[in-house]
Amino acid sequence: MYEIIAFYVFATLTIGMFGIVVMSSNALYAMSALAGGMIFISGFFFILDAEFLGVVQIVVYSGAIMALYAFGMMFFDTTRDVSEKMRSKKIAYTLSVISAILVVTILCAPLASEEIEAMYPSIDTVGNVQMIGVVLFTKYLVPFELAAIMLLVAMIAGIVLASKRMDEYLAMEENEIEYPKETK
Fold this sequence. Notes:
This protein is an all-alpha fold. It has a domain at 1-79: NADH-ubiquinone/plastoquinone oxidoreductase chain 6, subunit NuoJ (Four Helix Bundle (Hemerythrin (Met), subunit A)). The chain has helices at 2-23, 27-47, 51-75, 89-112, 116-119, 128-138, 141-176. Helix 1 (2-23) packs antiparallel against helix 2 and helix 2 (27-47) packs antiparallel against helix 3 (51-75). Pfam families: Oxidored_q3 (PF00499). Keywords: Cell membrane, Membrane, NAD, Oxidoreductase, Quinone, Transmembrane, Transmembrane helix. One of its GO terms (cellular component) is plasma membrane.
């Protein structure tokens, strides 16, 4: 019974936070609400006994949004007000209702299926995190390693590109800047 109550509480809070994200004219309010919405989404994982995914949701997504928050504070002028005009509210509400119905249908479709237990058998002696490890390192080992290699190559390429640009910038800076001579 508590799962149902918790589900509706988290659903209401998540939708409210993401509504603030969409409707807010202040970038910092929107980013704060986005971080809150991501934390409330992790509540769904905890309700489903997927503690590992809940913690990953909090750490990864909310951490990324906090980095976005820091950049937003640096780059946006948050003191000025932004005026936004919605020309057609009916289209926005219609698309919102259609997308909500699609999301509910997609999420409820596996519940209607009787084959769900046969497709994903559960082992009672093994915990949630251990099952993720077993699946990652047996069935999905090659894609997991390929993704790790691709991320490593992208990180090295980013460092190389940044160092080349930094060298070019420093060379331009040395050649173009003339310092004022001292006056006597």
